[in-house]
Design a protein that fits this description.
Length: 236
Amino acid sequence: MTTALLGRRVGYSTQQVRDLERLGVLPAAARGPNGYRRYGPHHETALRAYRAMAAALGPVPARRLMPELIDASMEDAAERIDLLHADLAEERSRVREALRGLEVAREEADDDFDEDDAMAIGELAQALGIRSSALRHWEREGLVHPLRSAASARSYGSTAITEARVVAALRSGGYGIPAIARILDQVRAHDRTDEVEVILAERLAALTRRSVALLAAAGHVHDLLVLPVRLRRLEA
């Protein structure tokens, strides 16, 4: 295939195909007698793998990953894909945990919180899969409001735990500190969690789309890795 034909088959411009080859997303193309690039089935498979990977991870991470996958063994490629799925699963778990936190906070709004159920900063950080420094930063930004003991030790009650869950979920979804602060202010002012629930539900839907795209990308990567073996067998 010519550069233009390959681009048309996958939905990229001629210049995009050249750029992706230069970045190592595509294996280097052979040159014909006239000096023009000539692409084969493995180039198309690599380009389709990148397109799906970009939908799952974003273009920049996909451009960094594809050169590694092209030269990887089947075992190494499978491990990288597994880790990507694990990251998505962990993020999905955090979002669902935030939704559960909102539900619990709504149900227990009028209940007295047992101080024995309060969490120390290390416990909450571990539960959310973040660093303690992140919780301290959120506190400085006014997003999370822990209690302070006489010894100035932080203690996270029901409200602070819910705040931290929401912040963690929104941060993982790409929301900046100012946007999260506005959302939390609205929740506190109107005692409503509807907007946060909508945002988190949309985040779950986006994660599902990314997971499906990653499944498609994994199939293309598999085809890319086994195609040279098939071609050698045909040539033999």
